[in-house]
């Protein structure tokens, strides 16, 4: 059995496909781009309906206000935010030309102007920024789907997103039916079905749920929980997370002046503060308190939202006095920490499996679009890799274990997750040993785990789902036995 990892096999197949099409410059150039991408930061598409809060969330994730958020018209152009040593804007036209727009700083205004070009004038904007938040991942904002378009153009828009990104962060304000259908259509593609490992759903603008009071996030969490248990959604999204992107963005980019204003407000008497916080309108426009003038309060509501201001004041009064404490408490309350954690666990840690998926998707697209004599060998190799992609099986089983679709008894459940790589994919992590563990101990532990799980495989009490799950764990153990720890 080959234990060479899936990514390397997928890369090799991608390169062979490129060689096979070398007399077709368009195809081979496209494929070369895909090969190069395997060594670039992971690409995550931020997708969803118009005004779902995509740009705001991108800023919250990057920790800077790069993406224009207050645009009245909707964004028409795919906008890539990626790391670069200096600020840079590249404009891609439909004919393949790339123009460099000279900039010394990146301001949302310039980006906004460029985003208003029509799709037949500009097909893609690439914003390069020296932001630490973009070193491990690149983010792509896709044009917001109009509600009618979710169904109509859903598939083609989606095919586009899929071919551009390794993973999808889908934002929805109300996870209703059309969004589910849209997401499901992603899932219909062959690779997507084999590897439903690349989608996180963010339940966005969660502060607006219900009447939008301080309890909004708890209501949003209850709704999210319902969707997590929805079998349709669970089949392709591993996480449904409520987020208040606006608060996340404000917390991540909070200024000293904002902190000073918030601290000043927190010193008001409880009665005055309660009266002031009755509504966003009252907060922003009432004449008093004079120490914090209306203009400052208007600024605070615009930046943090009414929910965010209320949370910030409550936290300051409870003792989160300095900027660092307040920022981290607000990032927690906005759901941004949970989202970052999910992105890390599901996408960054699993990037090899996601990159392999993208590479195979590219091969599949080319073989379908340009069939010619001799492709059957490549197609055969493609099918073999997809069928044997054990990494994807591990991810599927991990999410089934997390969602409760599959359950082992107590000690086995934890061990299965560890062996499947939930706490790190290195042999040491999988075997629950630290970095000082000796190779011989690891080998011994791997053999012991394998025989334990082989016993489970013949347990007659297990149903089919269970037997398949056990087989996946056994296969992970077999790989650990075959692997030489480095
Ligand atoms: N209350 C609240 N408002 C938000 C939140 N996120 C975004 N908004 C507001 O919603 C509006 C749209 O936000 P954007 O981030 O521009 O949304 P978008 O999905 O990028 O919009 P398009 O690209 O134009 O489709 C802006 O006025 C934001 O301030 C949130 O978490 N809470
Ligand atoms: Mg936007």
Automatic annotation (TrEMBL):
- Keyword set for this entry? GTP-binding, Hydrolase, Membrane, Nucleotide-binding
Q: Dynamin N-terminal domain: from which residue to which, for each copy?
A: 44-184
Coarse class of the primary localization is membrane
Is Membrane one of the keywords? yes
Record's superkingdom? Bacteria
In Pfam terms, one family for this protein is: Dynamin_N
Q: Does this UniProt record's set of keywords contain rRNA processing? A: no
Alphabetical list of InterPro entries matching this protein:
Dynamin_N (IPR045063), Mitofusin_fam (IPR027094), P-loop_NTPase (IPR027417)
Q: Which Gene3D superfamilies does the record associate with it?
A: P-loop containing nucleotide triphosphate hydrolases
Subcellular location, in the record's words?
A: Membrane
Query: What is this protein's record name?
Result: Dynamin family protein
Which species expresses this protein natively?
Answer: Saccharopolyspora rosea
């Amino acid at each position: 059995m080959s234990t060479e990892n899936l990514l390397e096999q997928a890369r090799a197949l991608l390169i062979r496909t490129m060689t096979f099409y070398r007399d077709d410059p368009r195809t081979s150039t496209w494929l070369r781009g895909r090969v190069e991408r395997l060594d670039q930061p992971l690409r995550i598409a931020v997708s969803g309906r118009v005004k779902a809060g995509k740009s705001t969330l991108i800023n919250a994730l990057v920790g800077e206000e790069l993406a224009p958020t207050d645009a009245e018209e909707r964004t028409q152009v795919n906008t890539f935010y990626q790391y670069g040593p200096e600020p840079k804007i590249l404009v891609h036209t439909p004919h393949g030309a790339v123009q460099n727009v000279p900039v010394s700083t990146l301001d949302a205004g310039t980006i906004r102007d460029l985003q208003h070009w029509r799709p037949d004038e500009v097909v893609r904007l690439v914003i390069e920024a020296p932001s630490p938040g973009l070193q491990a991942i690149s983010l792509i904002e896709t044009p917001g789907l109009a509600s009618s378009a979710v169904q109509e153009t859903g598939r083609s828009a989606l095919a586009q997103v899929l071919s551009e990104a390794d993973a999808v962060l889908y934002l929805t304000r109300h996870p209703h039916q059309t969004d589910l259908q849209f997401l499901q259509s992603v899932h219909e593609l062959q690779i997507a079905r084999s590897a439903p490992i690349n989608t996180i759903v963010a339940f966005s603008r969660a502060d607006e749920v219900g009447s939008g009071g301080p309890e909004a996030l708890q209501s949003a969490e209850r709704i999210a929980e319902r969707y997590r248990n929805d079998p349709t959604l669970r089949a392709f999204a591993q996480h449904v997370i409520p987020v208040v992107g606006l608060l996340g963005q404000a917390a991540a980019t909070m200024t000293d002046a904002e902190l000073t204003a918030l601290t000043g407000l927190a010193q008001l008497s409880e009665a005055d503060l309660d009266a002031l916080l009755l509504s966003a309108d009252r907060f922003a426009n009432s004449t008093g308190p004079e120490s914090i003038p209306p203009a400052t309060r208007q600024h605070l509501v615009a930046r943090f939202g009414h929910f965010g201001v209320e949370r910030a004041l409550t936290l300051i009064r409870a003792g989160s006095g300095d900027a660092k404490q307040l920022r981290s408490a607000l990032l927690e309350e906005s759901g941004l920490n949970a989202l970052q954690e999910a992105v890390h666990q599901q996408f960054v840690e699993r990037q090899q499996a996601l990159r392999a998926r993208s590479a195979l998707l590219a091969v599949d697209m080319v073989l379908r679009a340009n069939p010619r004599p001799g492709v059957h060998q490549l197609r055969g190799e493609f099918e073999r890799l997809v069928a044997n992609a054990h990494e994807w099986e591990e991810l599927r089983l991990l999410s089934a274990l997390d969602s409760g679709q599959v359950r082992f008894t107590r000690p086995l459940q934890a061990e299965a997750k560890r062996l499947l790589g939930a706490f790190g994919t290195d042999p040491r992590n999988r075997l629950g040993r630290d970095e000082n563990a000796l190779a011989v101990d690891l080998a011994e532990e791997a053999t012991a785990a394998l025989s334990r799980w082989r016993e489970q495989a013949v347990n007659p009490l297990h149903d089919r789902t269970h037997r398949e799950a056990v087989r996946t764990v056994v296969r992970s153990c077999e790989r650990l036995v075959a692997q030489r720890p480095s």
